[in-house]
Amino acid sequence: MPWIFEKFIGDYVMLKNFILRAMAFMFISSFVILGAKENIKIGAIVAATGPASFLGDPELKTLQHYVDKINKAGGVNGQMIELIHYDTGANPKKAVTFTKRLINQDKVVAIIGPSTSGETMAILKFVKKAKIPLISMAGAVAIIDPVKPYVFKIVATDRMACKKVMQDLKKRKLTNLALISGSGGFGKSMRKQCKEVAPDFGIKIVADETYGKKDSDMTSQLLKIKNNKDVQVVLNPGFGQGPAIVTKNYRQLKIQHPLYQSHGVASKKYIEIAGKASEGVRVVAPPVVVADKLDDSFANRKIALAYKNEYEKTFNSQVASFGGHAYDSLYIIVNAIKRAGSTNPTKIRDEIEKTKGFEGVDGVVNLSPTDHLGLDTKTGMVLLEIKNGDWTIVK
Amino acid sequence: MLKRYNINTQILLLIGILIVIPFLFQNDFYYEIAILSILNALIVIGLNLLMGYAGQVSLGHGAFAGLGAYISVVLTSNYGLTPLLSIFISVVIMGLLGFIISKPILKLKGHYLAMATLGIGIIINIVLEVEEEFTGGVDGMSVDSFVVFGYEFDNSVAWYILCAVLLVFTIWAFENLIKSPFGRLLRSIRDSEKAANSVGIDVSYYKSIVFVISVVIATIAGSLYAFFSGFISPQEASFTHSIELVVMVVLGGLGRVYGAIFGAVILTVLPQLLTSFEDYETLVFGMIIISVMIFMPKGIASIFDKVVKKKEQNSASSK
Amino acid sequence: MIELFGYLLSGVTVGFIYTLVGLGFTVIYNSSGIINFSQGEFVMAGGMSTVFLLYAGLPLGVAFFLAILITSMIGIVLYKLISLSRDSSQISLIILTLGFAIFLRGLAQVIFDKQLHTMPSFVGEGAFEIFDTTLSYQAVLIMVVASAIVISLYLFFQKTKTGQAMVAASNNVDAAKLMGINIKKILMLNFAISAVIASIGGILLTPITSTNYEVGIMLGLKGFCAAIIGGLGTPFGAVAGGLVLGILESLVAGYVSSEYKDAVAFVVLLAILFFMPGGIFGNLKSQRV
């Protein structure tokens, strides 16, 4: 035992020196990275690990890939883009710290992200104070309603998803809806929106269950729904493993009502995990998921398809709609910088707000001082049904 | 090493460092990290008192900090009380709660105590997530500005000064506590509860006091953090956060005040340094914890002591 | 009345999952007095390894075997790390195992990925129909295997020489050493056994709940509660604890509030710690002050 003591006393000094040298190295190398010519620094806050990694992972991959692509093609206005990204693990506290770091230390001119609504709400006051434009990749409608000058969000809201589902319910003359929601921010937020929007479509919420995101069995909650005579149809806001388990339990319990899923599971992963049970389930989704099947009413069809193909080829995995949000956010900023001919954050913000007719992965984007969302319900979301393990568009 | 100097010199040294450091700050973000470190250090000092001096492990202290913070925030935002008053009321509530909880919990030993604190922490976390009307739910809620006697703390320097003052005061109070009869009592309890009991010390009462102190400090620090960052979420009360706090205590060295500061600073700064590791960050973090627990389980402050011992040995032998 | 049956059935299904996780805690605690906070990650390792070995093209049986082997080696690595540690106080070991859990999660992120993964059920997708609800074949498989493991553990510790040596060693280390029992080997074996059980649990679970690098966190905590509730002194404790926990959770979700379901495990944990610290079956080990 003693020899380790001595080793460490001697090593303590070495360790200290090493740490100092390592820090000096990182500090200096950050200069090298910056290079002689000034780069355009764009910040990104993503939940690449943790409970929302299925959002942040494709978002980050998309950002890195396309920043690379833009730089290889010559950059923007002759300057290279430097993407400075931080991973928050969906923790709002970290989102705040990293936002402050991006603003004060890294001195970025625009920020993309965060991935989740909770994190976005946490950092709003800081981007406002610093006057740095933010394009969030989260779903909650509260982010852009009311409109905040420096905050944008090119993501179909959960409110839109609710409306899309309820339009279909109305068409099928289903009026009594049961909700079973995941307890994460996404599930809770959409649940709230659906409850608010339901009366507009003449729909009554007759059951309102929730489950924990790590739960392995939802039979109890579903039994309550099954035994509720009023229920005609079930909607499951949520993401991750939850909805897949709900779907499997649903079939096991032989519940006959139609089942609807949210855009949280708008990826082939859901079909893979839920297996045969997903047959016949209707899922509201951003159009990019079925880019190859869209018709002409979707003017951004080509871009969406190109993105889908490139993502799947580069990363060897199914496209996730969330990556599309990252793509749109990035290109809107880049185009704004091009138009502004400057990297002044306020000028960038002004140009972002003037975006018209931008063909993005999520739809055709038209921003204005009163609309920081830019998407419309008709083309912002599609309703899909799973047939034979694949998506089909519901007309 | 620091024991050579008396309390006052140590405090002066600390004040000196706190005054000098800001001049090394290159931008506002450094303040953020410094303030965070100090607030973490405060919680850790309290936790250190509980774990190091009273020998009671708590795996749920993040929850106390979080709950205390929520009470302060809710009282300010929803009921319009001034922040200072809210924090005060929160301290009273959490102190009482801490006392009530401590009675049954501190009867448990070792692992069981740790597990109980873990259970309580997680239950508090779940309640904060579920009771949306009060807490804003999983997504958290935003926090009003921190206004004290008409002055609004809206810049980093003001916050830094506030936190630094608080830190110095806490350390001074702590050091005095340790040197006092109360402190000796605590140490005797830590060394052997049975012996302490046999000389008539009401062990459970003192353990409760220590528990309450640690909860109160956590409440204050947690509340200040919420006001500083302008946002609060149930993540503050998560198991992960509680573990981070415990790691800070142990990293710095159980039972050493300055170790507590060390641990807090290192664990607050480390994630910032690790961002360049991207995907490997969790992996590296885990490796660091494992290495420290294997090679420096008494904490980094213990390394200091060994360096000093070695120097003393050398100078003694060379005489 | 019918719903009650449904709740009970689903509770039992989940309960056996908790049992499998809890068993690992019990085995390690009984032999070394250590609470292994990375037990949940062993479960994750079993499931994830199998999935990726299958992706690599290996046949099911080989994938199982390798995954279990890999996880048992992870268990041994943890043992080695613990024995390397120069401070065996409880708090140090708790943090060490927590650090190991974080490490394993980080490793899984990097070696595997962050996605969800699943496997097809091993006994087909069918299910038994009982009244108005169903019990999947996979769930039955879990019950059967979990019971088999519990019984084997019991027989092993009570009836075989090695097992009895282990029990003796944990009760009185010095006497055991005097009798020539190799403590180190025994502890190592226990860690390996615990890891094997966990990985089997992870493998069986995956077709039902899918797996990913984070799956270990909550499972570990709940399995841990199950072990404490049932009593750490015997493998039957994990069974009792797991079932009680699973059923209670299900009943609370069904009759009280589905939002507080997660809290059930910890409320029961606290109740047990305060009123019956030994758990249902009691704790054979004496209190360590």
Describe the structure.
Chain A folds into 2 domains: 40-156 and 301-376, Rossmann fold; 159-285, Rossmann fold. Chain A is 46% helix and 16% strand. Chain A is built from 13 helices and 14 strands. Chain B has one domain. In chain B, a hairpin with a 2-residue loop joins strand 2 (147-148) and strand 3 (151-152). The two termini of chain B are 21 Å apart. Chain C is an all-alpha fold. Chain C has helices at residues 2-32, 39-55, 60-84, 90-111, 137-159, 161-171, 173-178, 183-209, 216-230, 235-256, 261-275, and strands at 127-130, 133-136. Chain C has a two-stranded antiparallel sheet with strand order 1-2. In chain C, helix 1 runs antiparallel to helix 8 (183-209), helix 1 packs across helix 9 (216-230) and helix 5 (137-159) crosses helix 6. Chain C is globular. Residues 285-289 of chain C have low confidence and may be disordered. The A-B interface holds A 4-6, 8-9, 12, 23, 26, 48-49, 86-87, 91-94, 96-97, 100-101, 103-105, 116-118, 121-126, 140, 183-185, 188-189 and B 26-30, 32-33, 36, 129-130, 132, 137-140, 142, 229-231, 233, 235-236, 271-273, 275-276, 278-279, 281-282, 295-296, 303, 306-307, 310.
